[in-house]
Here is the input.
Amino acid sequence: MSGYISDDTRKVTTHRLIEMKQRSEKISMLTAYDYTMAKIVDGAGMDVILVGDSASNVMAGNVTTLPMTLEQMIYHAKSVVRAVKRAMVVVDMPFGTYQGNSKEGLASAIRIMKESHADALKLEGGEEILETVNRILSAGIPIMGHLGLMPQSINKYGTYTVRAKDNKEAEKLIRDAHLLEESGCFGIVLEKIPAALAARVASELTIPIIGIGAGGQVDGQVLVIQDMLGMSQGFSPRFLRRYADLNTIMSNAIGQYIADVKSSDFPNETEQY
Ligand code: KIV
Here is the structure.
Protein backbone atom coordinates (compact mmCIF):
# COMPACT_ATOMS: atom_id res chain seq x y z
CA MET A 1 0.00 0.00 0.00
CA SER A 2 1.36 3.41 -0.89
CA GLY A 3 0.57 6.60 0.91
CA TYR A 4 1.18 8.56 4.03
CA ILE A 5 1.58 6.93 7.42
CA SER A 6 1.90 8.99 10.58
CA ASP A 7 1.60 8.01 14.22
CA ASP A 8 0.77 11.58 15.22
CA THR A 9 -2.83 11.39 16.40
CA ARG A 10 -2.98 14.83 18.06
CA LYS A 11 -5.84 17.05 16.88
CA VAL A 12 -4.72 19.58 14.27
CA THR A 13 -5.17 23.15 15.54
CA THR A 14 -4.55 26.60 14.06
CA HIS A 15 -1.43 26.80 16.20
CA ARG A 16 -0.10 23.50 14.82
CA LEU A 17 -0.71 24.64 11.22
CA ILE A 18 1.40 27.75 11.82
CA GLU A 19 4.12 25.56 13.38
CA MET A 20 4.01 23.36 10.26
CA LYS A 21 4.67 26.41 8.09
CA GLN A 22 7.54 27.44 10.36
CA ARG A 23 9.25 24.08 9.92
CA SER A 24 8.38 23.95 6.18
CA GLU A 25 6.10 20.91 6.57
CA LYS A 26 3.48 21.05 3.81
CA ILE A 27 -0.17 21.06 4.87
CA SER A 28 -2.59 18.59 3.26
CA MET A 29 -6.20 19.67 2.83
CA LEU A 30 -9.11 18.02 1.02
CA THR A 31 -12.85 18.57 0.92
CA ALA A 32 -15.42 16.19 2.38
CA TYR A 33 -19.14 16.64 2.81
CA ASP A 34 -20.40 13.43 4.43
CA TYR A 35 -19.64 11.03 7.28
CA THR A 36 -18.34 8.06 5.29
CA MET A 37 -15.95 10.06 3.14
CA ALA A 38 -14.75 12.21 6.06
CA LYS A 39 -13.91 9.06 8.06
CA ILE A 40 -11.74 7.77 5.21
CA VAL A 41 -10.05 11.15 4.70
CA ASP A 42 -9.33 11.63 8.40
CA GLY A 43 -8.15 8.04 8.78
CA ALA A 44 -5.66 8.57 5.95
CA GLY A 45 -4.00 11.35 7.94
CA MET A 46 -5.30 14.54 6.33
CA ASP A 47 -4.36 17.74 8.17
CA VAL A 48 -7.39 19.84 7.24
CA ILE A 49 -10.82 18.79 5.97
CA LEU A 50 -12.77 21.52 4.20
CA VAL A 51 -16.54 21.28 4.18
CA GLY A 52 -16.55 23.41 1.06
CA ASP A 53 -19.52 25.12 -0.50
CA SER A 54 -18.37 23.18 -3.58
CA ALA A 55 -20.92 20.75 -2.08
CA SER A 56 -23.30 22.85 -4.16
CA ASN A 57 -21.63 21.50 -7.33
CA VAL A 58 -20.49 18.00 -6.43
CA MET A 59 -23.23 16.97 -3.98
CA ALA A 60 -26.26 18.95 -5.15
CA GLY A 61 -25.51 19.27 -8.87
CA ASN A 62 -25.79 23.06 -9.04
CA VAL A 63 -23.79 24.99 -11.62
CA THR A 64 -22.41 27.47 -9.05
CA THR A 65 -21.85 27.59 -5.29
CA LEU A 66 -24.35 30.42 -4.86
CA PRO A 67 -27.48 28.38 -4.02
CA MET A 68 -25.90 26.80 -0.93
CA THR A 69 -27.78 27.70 2.27
CA LEU A 70 -26.66 27.98 5.88
CA GLU A 71 -28.82 24.99 6.80
CA GLN A 72 -27.28 22.85 4.06
CA MET A 73 -23.74 23.78 5.10
CA ILE A 74 -24.55 22.99 8.72
CA TYR A 75 -25.97 19.58 7.70
CA HIS A 76 -22.78 18.71 5.77
CA ALA A 77 -20.53 20.08 8.52
CA LYS A 78 -22.28 18.06 11.25
CA SER A 79 -21.94 14.87 9.18
CA VAL A 80 -18.21 15.48 8.70
CA VAL A 81 -17.48 16.49 12.30
CA ARG A 82 -19.08 13.26 13.59
CA ALA A 83 -16.50 11.27 11.61
CA VAL A 84 -13.33 13.22 12.33
CA LYS A 85 -10.87 12.63 15.16
CA ARG A 86 -7.64 14.33 14.08
CA ALA A 87 -8.06 16.72 11.15
CA MET A 88 -9.06 20.34 11.59
CA VAL A 89 -12.56 20.81 10.14
CA VAL A 90 -13.04 24.12 8.31
CA VAL A 91 -16.49 25.08 7.02
CA ASP A 92 -17.24 27.49 4.18
CA MET A 93 -19.66 30.28 5.01
CA PRO A 94 -22.15 30.16 2.13
CA PHE A 95 -22.92 33.02 -0.23
CA GLY A 96 -25.26 35.64 1.22
CA THR A 97 -24.66 34.85 4.88
CA TYR A 98 -21.80 37.26 5.59
CA GLN A 99 -21.27 39.75 2.75
CA GLY A 100 -22.33 43.33 3.41
CA ASN A 101 -23.62 42.91 6.94
CA SER A 102 -21.13 42.08 9.66
CA LYS A 103 -23.77 41.52 12.36
CA GLU A 104 -25.55 38.99 10.16
CA GLY A 105 -22.14 37.50 9.33
CA LEU A 106 -21.41 36.96 13.02
CA ALA A 107 -24.86 35.45 13.61
CA SER A 108 -24.32 33.02 10.69
CA ALA A 109 -20.83 32.16 11.96
CA ILE A 110 -22.09 31.45 15.46
CA ARG A 111 -24.85 29.20 14.10
CA ILE A 112 -22.37 27.11 12.10
CA MET A 113 -19.98 26.76 15.05
CA LYS A 114 -22.69 26.05 17.66
CA GLU A 115 -24.63 23.53 15.56
CA SER A 116 -21.82 21.74 13.73
CA HIS A 117 -18.99 21.80 16.31
CA ALA A 118 -16.53 22.53 13.49
CA ASP A 119 -13.13 24.05 14.26
CA ALA A 120 -13.02 27.07 11.94
CA LEU A 121 -14.71 28.92 9.08
CA LYS A 122 -13.60 30.03 5.60
CA LEU A 123 -14.79 33.25 3.97
CA GLU A 124 -14.17 34.55 0.44
CA GLY A 125 -12.86 38.10 0.06
CA GLY A 126 -10.44 40.71 1.35
CA GLU A 127 -10.94 44.38 2.21
CA GLU A 128 -14.66 44.25 1.31
CA ILE A 129 -15.44 41.75 4.09
CA LEU A 130 -12.91 42.95 6.67
CA GLU A 131 -15.51 44.32 9.09
CA THR A 132 -17.23 40.91 9.12
CA VAL A 133 -13.91 39.10 9.49
CA ASN A 134 -13.00 41.26 12.49
CA ARG A 135 -16.39 40.80 14.12
CA ILE A 136 -16.26 36.99 13.74
CA LEU A 137 -12.67 36.84 14.97
CA SER A 138 -13.60 38.96 18.00
CA ALA A 139 -16.06 36.20 18.96
CA GLY A 140 -13.14 33.77 19.12
CA ILE A 141 -13.95 31.94 15.88
CA PRO A 142 -10.87 31.09 13.76
CA ILE A 143 -11.07 32.22 10.13
CA MET A 144 -9.33 31.05 7.00
CA GLY A 145 -9.43 33.60 4.16
CA HIS A 146 -9.94 32.80 0.47
CA LEU A 147 -8.54 35.03 -2.30
CA GLY A 148 -7.87 34.75 -6.03
CA LEU A 149 -10.66 32.96 -7.85
CA MET A 150 -13.62 33.27 -5.50
CA PRO A 151 -16.43 31.08 -6.86
CA GLN A 152 -19.09 33.01 -4.91
CA SER A 153 -18.23 36.02 -7.14
CA ILE A 154 -18.56 34.12 -10.42
CA ASN A 155 -21.30 36.43 -11.65
CA LYS A 156 -18.94 39.39 -11.26
CA TYR A 157 -16.06 37.67 -13.13
CA GLY A 158 -18.20 35.86 -15.73
CA THR A 159 -15.54 33.12 -16.06
CA TYR A 160 -13.54 30.62 -13.98
CA THR A 161 -10.21 31.52 -15.63
CA VAL A 162 -6.99 32.36 -13.77
CA ARG A 163 -7.25 35.51 -11.59
CA ALA A 164 -4.75 38.27 -10.75
CA LYS A 165 -2.75 38.05 -13.96
CA ASP A 166 -2.58 41.83 -14.25
CA ASN A 167 -0.66 44.06 -11.85
CA LYS A 168 -3.68 45.87 -10.45
CA GLU A 169 -5.48 42.68 -9.38
CA ALA A 170 -2.23 41.13 -8.15
CA GLU A 171 -1.43 44.19 -5.99
CA LYS A 172 -4.94 44.13 -4.52
CA LEU A 173 -4.59 40.42 -3.74
CA ILE A 174 -1.30 41.03 -1.92
CA ARG A 175 -2.85 43.93 0.05
CA ASP A 176 -5.87 41.79 0.94
CA ALA A 177 -3.68 38.89 2.07
CA HIS A 178 -1.77 41.22 4.42
CA LEU A 179 -5.04 42.69 5.75
CA LEU A 180 -6.39 39.21 6.50
CA GLU A 181 -3.18 38.24 8.28
CA GLU A 182 -3.15 41.49 10.29
CA SER A 183 -6.80 40.90 11.29
CA GLY A 184 -5.85 37.54 12.77
CA CYS A 185 -6.88 34.96 10.14
CA PHE A 186 -4.92 31.74 10.68
CA GLY A 187 -4.50 30.87 7.00
CA ILE A 188 -5.55 31.77 3.47
CA VAL A 189 -6.62 29.69 0.46
CA LEU A 190 -5.36 31.08 -2.85
CA GLU A 191 -7.32 29.74 -5.81
CA LYS A 192 -6.23 29.72 -9.45
CA ILE A 193 -3.64 32.50 -9.55
CA PRO A 194 -0.14 32.62 -11.10
CA ALA A 195 2.35 30.47 -9.16
CA ALA A 196 4.84 33.35 -8.80
CA LEU A 197 2.22 35.56 -7.15
CA ALA A 198 1.17 32.78 -4.75
CA ALA A 199 4.84 32.15 -3.88
CA ARG A 200 5.31 35.83 -3.10
CA VAL A 201 2.27 35.88 -0.79
CA ALA A 202 3.45 32.71 0.97
CA SER A 203 6.90 34.18 1.55
CA GLU A 204 5.62 37.56 2.80
CA LEU A 205 3.06 36.14 5.23
CA THR A 206 3.68 34.18 8.41
CA ILE A 207 0.31 32.34 8.27
CA PRO A 208 -0.07 29.24 6.06
CA ILE A 209 -1.07 29.75 2.43
CA ILE A 210 -2.97 26.81 0.94
CA GLY A 211 -3.11 26.68 -2.84
CA ILE A 212 -5.49 25.24 -5.40
CA GLY A 213 -4.16 25.97 -8.85
CA ALA A 214 -1.59 28.28 -7.25
CA GLY A 215 1.63 26.31 -7.80
CA GLY A 216 3.92 24.45 -5.44
CA GLN A 217 5.69 27.31 -3.63
CA VAL A 218 2.97 27.66 -1.02
CA ASP A 219 2.48 26.01 2.38
CA GLY A 220 -0.10 23.40 1.44
CA GLN A 221 -2.55 22.16 -1.17
CA VAL A 222 -6.31 21.62 -1.32
CA LEU A 223 -8.44 19.77 -3.88
CA VAL A 224 -12.08 18.76 -4.16
CA ILE A 225 -12.28 15.06 -3.26
CA GLN A 226 -14.63 13.99 -6.08
CA ASP A 227 -12.23 15.57 -8.59
CA MET A 228 -8.99 14.03 -7.27
CA LEU A 229 -10.62 10.59 -6.94
CA GLY A 230 -11.87 10.78 -10.52
CA MET A 231 -15.55 10.58 -9.57
CA SER A 232 -16.53 13.80 -11.32
CA GLN A 233 -16.31 13.97 -15.09
CA GLY A 234 -15.87 16.77 -17.60
CA PHE A 235 -13.78 18.92 -15.23
CA SER A 236 -10.06 18.79 -15.94
CA PRO A 237 -8.28 22.03 -15.15
CA ARG A 238 -4.48 21.97 -15.39
CA PHE A 239 -4.07 21.97 -11.60
CA LEU A 240 -6.12 18.82 -11.05
CA ARG A 241 -4.17 15.61 -10.50
CA ARG A 242 -6.41 12.53 -10.54
CA TYR A 243 -5.26 9.94 -7.99
CA ALA A 244 -7.85 7.33 -8.95
CA ASP A 245 -10.47 6.58 -11.56
CA LEU A 246 -13.36 5.88 -9.22
CA ASN A 247 -15.86 6.71 -11.91
CA THR A 248 -14.78 3.64 -13.88
CA ILE A 249 -14.38 1.45 -10.78
CA MET A 250 -17.82 2.42 -9.44
CA SER A 251 -19.56 2.16 -12.81
CA ASN A 252 -18.10 -1.33 -13.35
CA ALA A 253 -19.12 -2.47 -9.85
CA ILE A 254 -22.64 -1.09 -10.24
CA GLY A 255 -22.93 -2.60 -13.72
CA GLN A 256 -21.87 -5.98 -12.32
CA TYR A 257 -24.47 -5.71 -9.54
CA ILE A 258 -27.20 -4.97 -12.08
CA ALA A 259 -26.12 -7.97 -14.17
CA ASP A 260 -26.06 -10.23 -11.08
CA VAL A 261 -29.56 -9.14 -10.03
CA LYS A 262 -30.94 -9.59 -13.56
CA SER A 263 -29.40 -13.05 -13.91
CA SER A 264 -30.50 -14.10 -10.38
CA ASP A 265 -26.84 -14.70 -9.49
CA PHE A 266 -27.29 -12.35 -6.50
CA PRO A 267 -28.05 -13.29 -3.78
CA ASN A 268 -26.63 -16.81 -3.71
CA GLU A 269 -27.08 -19.56 -1.09
CA THR A 270 -24.57 -18.01 1.34
CA GLU A 271 -26.01 -14.53 1.02
CA GLN A 272 -29.37 -15.29 2.55
CA TYR A 273 -30.91 -16.43 5.85
O1 KIV B 1 -15.58 25.04 -1.74
C1 KIV B 1 -14.47 24.54 -1.95
O2 KIV B 1 -14.31 23.35 -2.20
C2 KIV B 1 -13.31 25.42 -1.89
C3 KIV B 1 -12.02 24.86 -2.38
C4 KIV B 1 -12.01 24.79 -3.84
C5 KIV B 1 -10.87 25.63 -1.85
O3 KIV B 1 -13.42 26.54 -1.51
Remarks:
- The radius of gyration is 20 Å.
